[in-house]
Structures are given as C-alpha cells and as structure tokens.
Amino acid sequence: MIIAVDAAGGDxxxxxxxxxxxxxxxxxxxxIALVGRRSVLHVLAGRSLRKYGITIVEAGQVIDxxxxxxxxxxxxxxxxxxxxxxxxxxxxxxxxxSAGNTGAVVGASLFTxxxxxxxxxxxxxxxxxxxxxxxxxxxxxxxNTDCRPEHLLEFARLGYxxxxxxxxxxxxxVGLLSNGGEAxxxxxxxxxSYQLLKKAKDINFIGSVxxxxxxxKTAEVLVTDGFxxxxxxxxxxxxxxxxxxxxxxIGHVFSSASRLRGRDLLRxxxxxxxxxxxxxxxxxxxxxxGVNGNVIIAHGRSQARAIKNAIxxxxxxxxxxxxxxFREENYEQASGN
Length: 337
What we know:
This protein has 337 residues and is an alpha/beta fold.
C-alpha cells in the first residue's frame, strides 16, 4: 500500500505535512509518497526517506486557496494535487491525502478518476466525532452547494455504505438535517428530499434530525446539502476551538495551584476524553465519496497529528476496499427504488 500525500497543500505545509507523514509511516507501517518540490522535501525528510521507505514525487507547482479550482487544474498540471491524483489514477498509489484547495482536489478527482457508477454528485463525508463507538458522518460537508432532492438521496446512500463498510455498522441510521422533526418542516429541498429518503428501501432512514440532536448520536449518517453541511462543520469546529482553549487555560491555572502538569490534571478530572472528542485532529480528514479512488481531504489547518490521522483514515479506507465495494453497488437500480 502506497499513500500519496500532498506535501505542498495546507497552511502548515510542507513542514507539518512531512512530520505527519513520517509519524504515519512509523505508526501505520505504510509506504508514503510525498508529492511536492523534491529539493525542499529531501531536506525536511532527511534520513527518514530511507529509514521508513518514504519516497518523493516531484511536483513543481502549487494550487493556492484563493485560486479558481478549475482554472488552476488546467493551468497547473504539475501541481501537487494534480500529480497526486494522477498517481492514484495510474495505480502507483492506493490513496491520496491533501490539505490543499478542496475545490481543486474535488475537481481533479472528478476529471481524472471519474464518478462511481450511478453517482451524479460525489460528496464529502466528514466525521464529526470519532472517539465514541458510533461517530456521526456528515454528508455533504462542502462539495455541492446547490442540490436537488435526488442528490441528497445519493448522499444518503453513499454515507450509509461508507459507515457500514468502514465502521462495520450493520444498518447505520440516516437522518435528514432540518429545522424540525416533522416531514412538513424545512425548505423545499428538505421536504422533497424527505419523501425520497422515506421511500428508499436500501437505507435505514429515521426521519429529520434537528441541529441540537447532532451530538446526541440520533443518527450515524447526517444528510444535507454541501452549503449547509459546511456551515455546520465550521460552526462545530469554531465552538470546539474555543472550548478547547478554555479547557487548556483552566488546566494551566489549576496545575499551577496543584503542582500537577496540566495534561495530568485534565486526565484525572476526566476532561481529556472531552478534549479529544472536540479536536478535529483526532479524525484528520474527510473522504470524497462517489469517485473511483480513495481520496482523503484534510483540514487546511492540519498540523502533523491531523495529517498522520488523515493518512490513517486513508489506510482504513484502502484496507476495507471501500472504493471497490462502492463500484459493486448498482446505484442506477437503487435510484429507482
């Protein structure tokens, strides 16, 4: 298994990406192909290249966050994102991990890898919490801002299969994000999607789920359009960041009084697990569902720990042959249910 990693994408690239890749190579025993400028990566990786079997694939261009994804893909064929996706297409890599421009990763995946049979809109599936036994998978987390009801039905099927295969849940509960539990609540998109999901026999649809129920584990799969999903994700991340900062500040104050290290004190009073549940670095990345390849999109602010865990998610996705099992599913037939 070789996992290609975009060493040029992200706010802390390439230093933190390289550190995370080295840690992943040690912990998960996978081969890593760093994609980026060879001269820079060779200096950063150093002895780890030979020691842990890390290789470098030259990519002299970088797609920045403020660039138009489609134009950048066309104008920068030697970018780390395009080169990494091409490694996946050729079979030289089993998965691709990137913390770079999300639109460019999605666009390059669509153009190069193509969509799985019966899928019209691939979606981003992001775990909101992976510490508990059954985390919530949010689909779509930002790939599709304008959607129709049939797209949300596809998202539900993709999320259902992904949770079932990756987490080994026999029948994941699928909920539709809305502003009320009744079928008549929500926008036109939500109301019409509700009726389609209700008729689908190949998913375990439990009805609408409100915002306050997300953290209650009402459903293992939460379906919405990419615009709403991305707002939900960013809101949770913002609240989590503030809460984590407060936890560490409290730990520092009390550790000074008790002469215990902050981490030890938080562990003793049971706050460590809460901090982990709210830390996006624990899950590392989100899977692009519905394309013919294993693509993991990491957070733009990812540092070494998040990159390492994103690579771990990529490894799990490959080991469970999720993309191949997606291909085996007859989505066209399912869409007729």
